[in-house]
Amino acid sequence: MLARPGDSNGATLFLLVHGGVDKKRNRSRASEEPFDHCLPLETYTREEPMNKLIEVVGNIVAGLGVLTCLGSGLARLGQYWNVVGFQTMILFNVGVGLMVLGCLAKLHLLTSK
Predict the structure, then answer these.
(1) H/E element holding 87?
(2) C-alpha span between 23 and 88 (Å, rounded)
(3) Contact 103, 62 (CB under 8 A)
(4) Is the pLDDT of residue 96 over 80?
(5) CA quadruple 29, 33, 39, 45: dihedral, nearest 10
(6) Smallest Cα–Cα separation from 64: which of 96, 88, 105?
(7) How confident is the model at residue 113 (pLDDT cuts 50, 70, 90)?
(8) Could you give the CA distance from residue 111 to residue 43 in angstroms, rounded to a whole number?
(9) The predicted structure's pLDDT at residue 11
């Protein structure tokens, strides 16, 4: 059902929001392209700064995980069984956990879009 500009039930607001009236055809432009003039939905969300924060923190945590795994692996190859008071296998497991946390942050971003 198309609304006319003279209707008293808020149709004027509907026409203003959805593109007004096409002067040539004397009908609402909302019937043909209802949302072409609107910005994409992503520009209206307030979650964008949080998603950016999750992305940055996920990248940092994953990078730290890779460095921790690499450092503990090299220490193990160099026959250093303890690094900074921790066994190298514990540091390796911490690195794997950090990488999993980074992957979960990326997965959250992919599923929220």
Answers:
(1) strand 86-87
(2) 75
(3) yes
(4) yes
(5) 110
(6) 96
(7) confident
(8) 18
(9) 46
- Residue 50 structure tokens: 């949080």
Residue 79 DSSP SS3: coil
Which residue carries 């890779």 as its tokens?
66
Please report, as a single letter, which amino acid is at residue 90: I
Phi, psi (rounded to 5 degrees) for 28: -70, 140
Per domain, the residue ranges of the chain are 1-38, 41-112
Residue pLDDT, tens place only, 18-40:
455 555 555 555 555 555 555 55
- Largest Cα–Cα distance of the chain, in whole Å? 85
Mean pLDDT of 100-106: 95
Task: Give the DSSP H/E element, type plus range, for residue 83.
Answer: strand 82-83
Q: What is the 3-state secondary structure (H, E, C) of 10-58?
A: CHHHHHHHCCCEECCCCEEHHHCCCCCCCCCHHHHCCCHHHHHHHHHHH
